Amino acid sequence: MLLEFFSNSTIILSVEKKERLIRILFIDPDHTHSSYFIRLVKESGHQITCFPVFSFQEAKKRLDSDSFDIVIGNYNLDNTTILDLSPFIGKTPLVITGSIERSSDLVKALESGAEDYVIKDDRNIYCKTLLIKVIKIIRTKILKGYVVKSRVDELLYRDIMENIPDIIYKIDPNGFFTYINSAVKMLGYTQNELIGKHFRKILHPEDYHKVSRKEAEMNNYTLNDPLQGPPKFFDERRRGERKTTGLEVRLIPKTWSKQTADSMVIIGSVISFGEINAQGHYKPEDNRFLGTIGIIHDITTRRKSESLLRKLYEAVDHSPLSIIITDSNGNIEYVNPFFIHLTNYTPGEIIGKHISQFSGNGKKDGKQPDYRSIITTGERFQGEVVSSRKNGDTYWESVTMTPIRDPNGKVTNYVIIKMDISSYKKAQIELQNAHDELDRRVTERTQELQKTNETLRLEIADHSRAEEEKIKLENQLRQTHRLEMIGTLAGGIAHDFNNILAPIIGFTEMILEDIPEDDPVSTNLTYVLEAANRAKDLVQQILTFSRQVEHEAVPVMVQPLIKELLKLLRATIPKTISIKHYISPRCGAVMIDPTHFYQIIMNLCTNAFHAMREAGGTLEINLNPEKISIEKARSIAELKHGDYLSIKVKDTGHGMERAVLDRIFDPFFTTKKVGEGSGLGLSVVHGIVTSYGGAILVESEVGVGTTFTVYLPRIDSEVLVGTEKKPNIPRGTERILFVDDEKQIALMGKEMLERLGYEVTMLTDSEKALDYFKANAASIDLLVTDQTMPGMTGARLAVECMRIKPGLPVILITGFSEQITDEESKKIGIREYVMKPIAFREISQAIRRALEMKEK
Fold first, then answer.
1. Would you say 739 and 791 are in contact if contact means Cβ atoms under 8 Å apart?
2. Which has the closest alpha carbon to 296: 197, 183, 160, 209?
3. Which of 9, 573, 730, 749 fits 178 for a cystine, CB–CB 3.0-4.6 Å?
4. DSSP at 276
């Protein structure tokens, strides 16, 4: 190449194309890359011949035997690098391809003379970039390889120069531009704005020393060659003995200023980089320096890419994550240092191996990716897996495996990023264990709370039931107290009534004995006696209600009594009322006066009849043994736990309201019409039942019917109840002291006993009677005394008399008494206990029993 500069600073080029093709040596172990590049070259139409080789030794052999214009080589070759071929490549331009693992290696490669570096990808897109780089190198070589001829048409010269994308310039010996092509517009200038201006106009101040001898001397810079000082460098270039190739300087745009140069805000102030290829022009014949011509190639994008590439390499090299790159088949092409550190493998033990070889060995539970399946289908995988170190230890990793695809969608590589999460998994397991333990404790506590809640609920329910039972018992207690009060009142009335009836019945019986039976007066007196006896029965019912009458309880088998009662009921109750019954054969016996049992059943059945007599219905009687528990006994007033006979009398009548139920056991309370009942029936039943230690309950619903349930204590004896013949009236001649505060009763008693043959002394004052007895004790054979008297009771009188005369026979007469019973009277020595009104036959028998007991 010959460049001639005329005095008018106008360059005229005359070119003569060389008659040979550009030869390129393409070194790459992968055939696909060279094949793809050769195809691109053919499609571009450039006169380029490419010679592919596939190994280090083959490349060395071709470089020894042949010459090439450009060498393209993969950085990694067998077990070495392309840099080891530098002695054989020499001055031939070298373009490196592939993946350099460390940024320091890239810098070393570029410093070793490499023209450029292109990052490879399995989709071969980089080949297009590579071709562009090659064409630029060729373009520079073409510009230098053509001969300048003075006869070349200036228009051809301008067409070539103005369309070259690189800045082509000429400066005079003083550093002023004498020519610059239109590519200078990349800096924001026109050609005219720079012609005649010093080159410092577009050069960064800090880079003056690279192109200025004066600046280099002042700052003692060594430039490219540390063995040569700046003066020698510039002198050699002036004389054309040294060619400046690849000298990098920073160019400044038109808008640049020192104040805004380093600002990150003003994007327009970013400094561009240029690569200068320059040659000094010198006339040796007159030892005259004519200036410098050069080409400035914009390498801003390349340097930014290289800077970014260095940053990426640094980021990958220092990443705390394992980064792996494989080919499309899963064979490892690259691993970063952290992976080496984590697994303790060496790069030689990893590169080229399949990724699946470094999965876990099954010592821990964990999901293992099927790498071969993923690679076959081109899937993306993300998950937690178990991997293994060189020594066989396993550890948890979070893995993301992502395919890299070419423009056609074909997978060319896989990038695998792994993060060691062993500590996290350990914490997760501990946390899960803690959660499980917490869940267990919560479950246990919940169960305890549920149990406590259930216990509390039961306690509340028991409390509610207890409250209900308490209210029920309080009602029953009030009912009992009311009945007891009424009973006390009724007993007092009955006592007075007995005192009234006693002389009526006694004198009437004696008069009837004194007159003939055919006397008309006898008939009238019989009517009087019958009425008095009915009044006596009424008094007995009152006393029974008030539980102040003594009765003789005997073991009774109730089954035959019920059967007799059912026959009587069927004969007296209308046929509109059906009678049903169920009598258990295991009822056993109860201790009761048979008459009282009749009264219970008849009163309850009579009530049922009255409830159904208008509309008819069903009367049902059931007898069953029943064991009353302690819990049930608590809910029934005056009832103890044990074995009972349950008597149920049920009707389907009109039923009763609550107000009626609360009063049904009150004496004289009745819902019947006047003349249909006295109101004593249920009160008498209540008195009888409770006097035998039982209880009576009632349930009723208006319009449905009523059920009475009677509980009587059950015994195991089985006794048949019979009748006895009435004995004759016995008589005697003994001396009797008869004491009663009621004068009429005293007179009646004196006369009645005298009729029986006895000698009787009558007194109406108990204290006077005691004085009389003290004076006449020896002559008195029997003391008959009333119990309730003013001043001194009959029992007290009897005690005092028996103290005076031990063994004295005593008969105690009473209408009712809350102070003394038959059993209590016998304990103090009283031999007989007679209830008012006094019956002639009963008193006669009592006297003989008392006197004969003494005689025995």
1. no
2. 183
3. 9
4. E
**424 φ, ψ (degrees, to nearest 5):** -65, -45
On the question of pLDDT at 48 being above 90, the answer is no
Contact 181, 161 (CB under 8 A): yes
H or E stretch covering 185: none
Q: In sequence order, which residues have a C-beta less than 8 Å from that of residue 63 and are 6 or more positions away?
A: 25, 71, 85, 88, 89
| Strand 80-81 with 76-77, pairing | antiparallel
Interatomic CA distance for residues 366 and 359, integer angstroms: 11
> CA–CA separation, 344 vs 341, rounded Å?
5
d(CA 108, CA 116): 12
User: What secondary structure, in 3-state letters, does 773-791 show?
Assistant: HHHHHHHCCEEEEECCCCC
22-27 sheet: strands from edge to edge: 48-53, 22-27, 70-74, 94-98, 114-119
| CA 13, 19, 25, 30 torsion-angle sign | positive
Beta bridge partners of 705: 701
Instruction: List phi, psi (to 5°) of 401.
Output: -115, 115
Closest CA to 136 of 271, 301, 332, 286: 301
Handedness of CA 825, 826, 832, 837 (dihedral sign): positive
Separation of alpha carbons 271 and 261, rounded Å = 7
pTM for the full predicted model:
0.34
d(CA 564, CA 562): 5
Rounded Cα–Cα distance for residues 695 and 710 (Å) = 6
Structure tokens at 24: 């390129």
Instruction: Tell me the Cα Rg of the chain.
Output: 70
Q: What is the rounded CA–CA span in Å between residue 345 and residue 454?
A: 65
What is the Cβ-side half-sphere exposure of residue 244, based on CA atoms within 13 angstroms? 27
User: 197-247 pLDDT, tens per residue?
Assistant: 888 888 888 877 777 666 665 666 555 554 455 555 566 666 565 556 567
Give the Cβ contact number of residue 6 at 10 Å. 10
Residue 177 · residue 170 · CB < 8 Å: yes
Task: Tell me the β-bridge partners of 397.
Answer: 385, 420
98-119: pLDDT as tens digits: 876 666 666 777 777 788 888 8
How many other CB atoms sit within 10 Å of the CB of residue 748? 25
- CB-side neighbour CA atoms (13 Å) of 95: 23
CA distance 814 to 492: 12
Reported as type and span, the H/E element at residue 71 is strand 70-74
Question: Which 8-state DSSP code applies to residue 159?
Answer: H
Task: State pLDDT tens for residues 479-505.
Answer: 666 656 666 666 667 667 777 777 787
Residue of higher predicted confidence among 152 and 431: 431
Task: Give the integer Cα–Cα distance in Å for 279 and 244.
Answer: 6
Closest CA to 814 of 491, 506, 593: 491
Residue with tokens 């008297």: 789
Work out the number of other CB atoms within 10 angstroms of the CB of residue 638: 14
- Read off the tokens for 709: 């349930």
Helix (H, G, I), strand (E, B) or coil at 4: coil
Over residues 722-746, the pLDDT tens digits come to: 444 445 788 899 999 999 998 888 8
The rounded distance, in Å, linking the Cα atoms of 133 and 44 is: 14
